[in-house]
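Supplementary Text 2. Reproducibility record for the structural model of the 591-residue chain.

All settings were left at their defaults, and a single model was retained for analysis rather than an ensemble. We include the record here because the model underlies the residue-level annotations in Supplementary Table 4.
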Amino acid sequence: MGAVRLKIIDLEHGDQPIRSEDGDCVIVYNGEIYNHAEIRKELESLGHRFHSHCDTEVILRAFLEWDTDSFRRLRGMFAFAIWSESRQRLLLCRDRAGMKPLYYVHDGHDLAFCSELKGILADPAIPRHICLDGLSYYLSLNYVPAPYTLVQGIRKVRPGHWLEWCDGAVVERPYWKLQFSPRQRPLPEALEELDVLLRDSVKEHLVADVPLGLWVSGGLDSSAILHYAAQASASRLKTFSLSFPGRSFDESRYFRSVASQYGTDHHEFEVDPTLDLPASIDDMMYYSDEPSADAGALPIWFLSALTRKHVTVALSGEGGDELFGGYQTYLADKYSSTYRLLPKIARQAIASTASLWPSSNEKISFGYKVRRFSTGSLLSADAAHCFWNGTFSEEDKHRIAQLPVGQMIGDLYRGISNRDLNRYMEFDTRYYLADDILYKSDRMSMARSLEVRTPFLDCRLMEFAAGLPLDFKIRGSNLKFILRELMHGKLPPAVLRRGKQGLDIPTHEWFRTSLREILLDVVSAEALRATGIFDVAAVEEVIARHMQRREDLGYHLWGLLILLLWANRWNIDFSPARQQQEEIYKGLPVH
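Retained model, structure tokens:
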């Protein structure tokens, strides 16, 4: 067992692995435990004597005292492994929200594990075959939900779970599960509690023995974090942002307004097509482990590079949209229930007409929204929610990759009992947040030796949000209602009024200009044919429709580009998937 440590707390004495005094137990760990001082004090009262001030030793001693019951005591982001020599027992554990990654492969008796997929692939005995289920999820969702990966046999420990290996047998169990179970309560009381929770969480997330700053986008979530950080910090804060040429992507007037209000030492970087984007994409791929079809990973790559020049830790606003209802897709979910009262033939006619809407280079143009909404409303409510946030539909996947139309998306909803919009917030918190939003944030920042902390994902805040009445989050067409109410009078009015923007790149435009060459070179007929999975003519039609401005398919093409770059970088073999595909299709009717 080994670890490469980014030193944040106790720079002198926290080197890993750390052993117990008798040498029987050893730990390797990645992350931050924000309540480690509180747990340490309790353990000292029980007779434990510490040799460092780092949180790694706290995790180990808590495990020695309470075994797996210790995991639910930890507040923070973490992935760790603890080996017990006397019991020949290995424990793997991952934080509640899935902020830190943890991969493993269990092959008969043996088990390999790592916080990076490439660490497992370093073993030449591990086969590098594409996973057909993982590929299907990737094309639909833009990410691969745990426990799946894109490599057959390699899995991810689920967020909020621990896994035990003992004598060749593996079991995985949850130690925490977030369920959205609203209860009625007075709004003033909820606002007061949210204020206290946010203040305490941000204060805990500011503790570090290294320079620290904040990512600000000018949106509600990051601005709220900045407000509470300014209250808790006696020194001038450093803030970091990205700007883009083009009005639909640029948020500079918002984040400059917030940075000015709080007098921060502000830094920003402009992302534009004059940068060496192909080289940056190639570098990004090495650190991504699994490909992310979310083009927002690229600006985070640049933002992390800018930030690391000045600080080692950055606070960010991830989690606010999932917990408090901030995505436009929730409004689509809400309004589609009424829209579906129209006869299906009428909805099909509207979708057909919407497909003729002119293309646009805008971020998410009105025409793009109309097309996606009308097409998604032909699906079931659960499938539509994933379609609005994803790219390829089930029929699209079957067309371009000959993947069977199945119930894979439905499988992800098992265990989610809510039937209102809380259903989709719980889904997004469980999957989209962990395997897309936090995935890209962690990989891109850690590649730059930068630690990103997310105060909204304090488990107390998550549980609070999951228990709020729905109309505290979405009231009419107002998203994140309670958070806007809390920040009223604190943040600039323009920030409070604006809708969700999201960090992204102009994929529609760049694939028609600066990224055209790399797209056509990587997603070539030869490369597609070599996989034996993709239908060359069908994929070329997707490219042609985009290039000829018949449709805006930049997000679809980004996913294909990144997938093939990744497969080539890590020599992923598609042939076993072809055989599996043939088995699936035996006896099935031709579509």
